Amino acid sequence: MLRIVKSQDIQILASDLAHVVNQQSDVFASVPMIVPSMALGDWLDKYLAEVNGIAVLTQCHFWGNWQWELVEKIAESKYFRSYAPLSLSEVRWRLFAWLYKHGQQILSDDQHPLYELLSVLFGGQKSYDEGAVSRLWTLSEQFARIFVRYMTLRSDWLTVWQQGRALPITEMLANQTAMPEWLKMHYHQLHHSQRFLWQTLFADIYQQREQRIDKFWYLLATYPEKKALLPKQIVVFTMQGMTPDILSFLEKLSRHTNIILYHQTPTEQWFDDIVDGKWLQRYQIDHPKAADAHYDAGHTLVSRFGKQARDQSRLLTRLLTNAEEGSLAVVVDELAPTSSVNKRLLGILQQEIHEFGENVSSRAYFKQLMATDTFEQDDSFRVYACHGLMRQLEVLRIQIIQWLNQDASRQLSDILVVLPEIGDKQALIQAVFPPNGRYDGLVLPARITGVTAPDTLNLWAALSGYFTLLENGFHGREVIDWLLLESNIQALGISAEDMQRAVELLEEAGFRRGFDEAHLQAGFAAGDDDFRFSFCYALDRLLVGLLMPEVSYYHESAPLAHVTMADSVGINALAQVAETFRKIRLLQSKPHHIGDWLQCLAEVLNQEFSAALQTQAYKIIEQSIRELNYQLAGKTALSKDAKDYPIPLNFILHYIESGLADRQVSSEPSGVITIGRLSALRGLPYKLIAFINANIDDFPAGASDDRYDLTTIDRRRSGDQIKEDDDLSAFLDVLLSAREACWFFYDRYKPEDSHEYLPSIVLQELLDYLSAYCPDPDNALARFIIEYPQNPFDGREDYQAIAPLWQGIRKKLSLPNRIASKPLLDITLPHAVEVFAADVLPGDHDVLAVDYIVADLIYPACAFAHAHDMTFLADVAEFDILEPLTANHLTRHQLFRYLIEQAYLGAKTDNLSVLKRLPLAPAGAYGRLWLERQQQIFNEQLTHLLKQTQSTRLTQVYSQQIDTLLGIISAELPQPACQHAWLMMSAGKMKDKHLLRAWLYHLLWQIQREKTEDIHQDDIIPAMDRGYTYVQFMDELAIFTALPAATAQTYFNDWLSVWQYLHQHLWLAPIELLFKYHELKQDPKNDSTEKLDHQLKCLCRNWLASNYVYKIDSEDIWTHLLQGYAPEEIEQYLVKFVAAYTERLIVPIYRHQDHGADHD
Hints:
Layout lengths: L1 E6 L2 H14 L7 E4 L3 H15 L5 E4 L1 H13 L12 H20 L7 H8 L7 H24 L1 H8 L6 H6 L6 H42 L1 H4 L5 E5 L6 H10 L4 E7 L12 H10 L13 H6 L1 H19 L4 E5 L10 H11 L4 H12 L2 H4 L3 E7 L1 H17 L9 E5 L6 H7 L13 E3 L5 H18 L4 H8 L2 H7 L3 H13 L8 H5 L13 H13 L20 H21 L5 H15 L7 H16 L7 H4 L6 H14 L10 E5 H4 L4 E6 L31 H15 E12 L11 H11 L9 H4 E3 L16 H10 L3 H4 L11 H4 L11 E3 H9 L1 H8 L21 H16 L7 H4 L8 H26 L7 E8 L2 E8 L6 E5 L6 H18 L18 E5 L4 E4 L4 H18 L8 H12 L6 H16 L10 H7 L5 H19 L1 H5 L9
Parallel strand pairs: 1-5, 1-6, 2-3, 2-4, 4-5, 7-12, 7-13, 8-10, 8-11, 9-10, 11-12, 14-16, 17-18
Antiparallel strand pairs: 15-16, 18-19
Helix pairs in contact: 1-2, 3-9, 4-6, 11-14, 15-16, 20-21, 20-28, 20-30, 23-25, 23-26, 25-26, 27-28, 38-39, 38-43, 43-44, 45-46, 45-48, 46-48
């Protein structure tokens, strides 16, 4: 028996279902429920649980899988499969595999039925390249969807093809009078190609499929025991997506068991014969003499938005007619909605649609409501014009708070937020509606449903990376990002800190791109064997540095310094990853068919990510791999043929990834604010439904590419699934499903431009319809559309900022300008006694490194900001994508630092066998030549320094601690301190910051050395030369003379005083200005005070400019700290600071340099 239950209210239909489930005689029998979406199935389960106290006897299914499971169950197939033969996946892979194998053969035969199709696709190419194969993959996807569409909506066409006949394309095109001839030829050729492909690839399988269904009906009609296997009762809940073939199957099945078909209709009236109101207007214009009685548009909104519902009603009428003709028992129950009508705008609109009439009473309600002041308080229907999606979400938060506060019975779970597509908007939505609800001071927990969980995507990225990174060049930045994936870290059993340290060491060891020498060799020129920047070579350096740090090199790998046993965990993880890549590379070197690739994916998932075995992400990915393998297997599946067709791996990975993106982990109502895709959540009843992103270019969706679809030239049939009709129907569902309020949000302005945009054409039609009822229709839109300012803290009087965050910002911005523009810091010129105090105050440091003091003196703005807990985002150096091909100053600096370290250790600095194994020089032949030249330059400078001092090596330094007024300071100084001269080298030029560092080290040595100088009075070196410091910079040699310890202590204390002062106050005498001013004072041209003062002012003015090349410290930090002051005022302070402290701080540096002697 077939029972049809109709109602306009989905909750009334669900209530009847709950009653049916409770009344069934067998309390243990389950009731299969066919639902159009996962969201509706989850909502039904929750509703039945609330009504009946439990929901265990119902199981929700999708039609396609459930139908074939039932067929296989009754037919008792030896090869049971829950997927019908010729599923979308099966058709797509079979097409791609066959075309991939035979494509080149087809292109060489211009008489082949597919020649025209593929020649256009490949643009005249006779062979495959990566782009051609990608286009072939896309074509296979399009044709697969079209063939499945034919099976669903045009099974009669397939019957014609099965019989070896052609479709009447000429007759179908006869009605297309405006179609150009070339396009008609395209459809003729398209039919020829599709018919050939169907008969070649799918005809046999389709015939077996139809024979299996025929056997199903035969067994049910012949054997009573087969009928006993059917469920006692089957429920089909709503007709979304129903096609004539599905209803025909249900009609025949209802002769063997009980079927209940729940049908939600927008109106209680007959509307099978209505036509689109817009179409009718155009028809009447084109045919003014036609009788109006032939066509009726009915209700304006139903005729426009209810085409899908109208087609469903037509199919239902056809089902009833066929049932009566076939003597089938049919019961039709029409359940009336509740009699109470909401007298607000939304309720009146819903009632009018349900009654299918723009009647006098509804017009009166509309006009009465809109003519009174109560309309301004009516929030049941609202449209909000905003500036971008983020602003839409912020406004929605405000409106939700107001809506909740109006009625204590309202809950977060009463709110549904839908948008056309989530896609790349998910991150922004989660930022404004985070799971914990905290964004702007208001707590509104929300959950995005119907999307793939982030942990699933993370695990898939980790798994697929083993296969894609090698194919994509194994670039350093991609590999490091991949290694830092949470799934990889968990799989390797290490901490995030250990992995972060490991990738830092990997980068320091020189990794830029390429897995190993063999991997790089494929893209290198003949004879180029420079693989110093590969992953495996960098890993070898880490291993040698860990296990044999003392060797110069081992098996072509020079050890990386500073590797400790604490790094062994991360290095071991990298070695494990490298071994897995080697195994997979061996597999990728040979062609494989899809079954082998899927097996390999499953094995890597099981072996490398077993730590995630019990997680939902692991199960989803494993199921996706298994489902694809399952869909391509079975009695009539592709596995036998596919083994002959090697498939590129990247297409398999792409297919699974796309499937994961489409896979909904859950779409059920979340218990808090539910956010999801419109098509996934349509029809669900909520008190408040908010439709966001109702923009003209987002909804309804644009027409799909249908140039390969023959149904576009056929007459439209009831049940045809047209995307635009589906979107319009979903829009109507939103209007009718909202119980208390329905809000729409759109972008009137976009953040990237200042143009004004209209809302979605569908929303615009609804507003036009409502405007007709307003007392002043010309200005009606202003009453419906509420425009919000661009910023949530806008200062307009008519705008109320509700969220605490925006209230606070608005309050700050509304303060008087004199307060808002107050300088951040009070700057005054300190007296010398304030800076150079008699006693330097002891610090709170146990041991203070002198390099830390030097850094603060060089970067006073950064030091001040850090001391006052100011955080600034630093520019992160970009990872070099490729190995360096040319040298720059940084490359040379790094090389010289390494050579200096080797010189201090007494190692040979001309050992090219070691240097060429380090990633210090550019790649290739240029790098080798450059390395030899730089090594020669360094050795010349070292030789010059040693010759000048009659020494054989640089002075050895050791960590020592010096007791100062500030506390204990540590520094690398000669040991013993009584060394006669200190020979050091610097990797930089003699710039201000390097010279200051050398001077401070010299002062510390002078303080330390006097303690033991009297022991060595008999030394052969003259007393006048004892205590000199020789600093060989990259461009000059600086020689600091000996100083009495007391004098050195005084000079050093001056700098300590500055260091201590700049942590408390902003120091406006940066060293680059101090050194430059001293240089100006030494210039004979500045022979008068006026000239010198003028030069100093110009110097300070230029320093303030943004393009001053000598500014060492961060310009952004200086700008922030100096805000509120006029440039002229800052210039005056700079002049005073520099003039006051140059003499005391900088002059001693030059006074105690040996400039007179000939050191060459």
